[in-house]
Amino acid sequence: MAEKNQLDIANLRREYTQGGLRRKDLTDDPLVLFERWLEQAYEAKLADPTAMCVATVDSDGQPYQRIVLLKHYDKDGLIFYTNLSSRKAQHIAHNNKVSLLFPWYQLERQVCFLGEAEKLSPLKVIKYFQSRPKDSQIAAWVSRQSAKISARSLLENKFFELKQKFKNGEIPLPSFWGGYRVRFNSVEFWQGGTKRLHDRFLYQWQQDHWQIDRLAP
Ligand SMILES: Cc1cc2nc3c(=O)[nH]c(=O)nc-3n(C[C@H](O)[C@H](O)[C@H](O)COP(=O)(O)O)c2cc1C
Questions:
Q1: Is 182 annotated as a binding residue?
Q2: Which residues are within 8 A (CB) of 116 and not within 5 positions of it... i.e. 6 or more apart?
Q3: Residue 152 counted as domain residue
Q4: Contact assessment for residue 174 and residue 141, using Cβ atoms and an 8 Å cutoff
Q5: Which ligand 1 atom sits closest to the C-alpha of 88?
Q6: Is residue 9 part of a domain?
Q7: Beta partners for 52?
Q8: pTM exceeds 0.90
Q9: Is 181 a catalytic residue?
């Protein structure tokens, strides 16, 4: 087989020029700044502006990461939905400390939350579940998320079987599907800067206020 030249990734880089993040730009509450950045990510038409990378650890301390979509946020935390038997759910049951990272490359930004995940009540979940497109509701029933399966056709067949079964009327919430609220105690904002002198600010919750520190890039 002919040798293919590898892409020269060591030399792939760009200057970050979209402007810095200064103390005067910060808000006392990190959620206010987060909301501003999220709106800007949406306005900039980034693909999946609400996509966040969730890190969990297994019982050996081995970290795992995967993308999920942020579906709600307020001062009590950030909410995402998933399968409650999935690998991530098993990790959270064992150790509920998680990290959530929003990678907004096109804006030369990232935001990282640290906190603890807690399961949402079925009452809260059902409202969101029923707001999803019907096919997504059926897909939630079909997939034993994170389990090994032998073929895609199993999913397709189950999907059509359930589509038929649920064709008239509401689709019930599967008992194994739900959501998590991540209560955060630390938020870090990163904005790329010129000459590789980036701006980082770390917010840490201290009893009754957010302490803000600048970190070296
Ligand atoms: C853009 C994008 C959005 C996703 N959104 C979700 C989501 O909201 N919930 C979810 O359970 N999985 C979502 N996934 C799939 C997860 O990344 C992951 O494959 C799945 O949750 C199983 O993870 P686990 O086996 O570590 O539990 C998304 C993947 C991508 C790429």
A1: no
A2: 96, 97, 98, 182, 183
A3: no
A4: yes
A5: 27
A6: no
A7: 68
A8: yes
A9: no
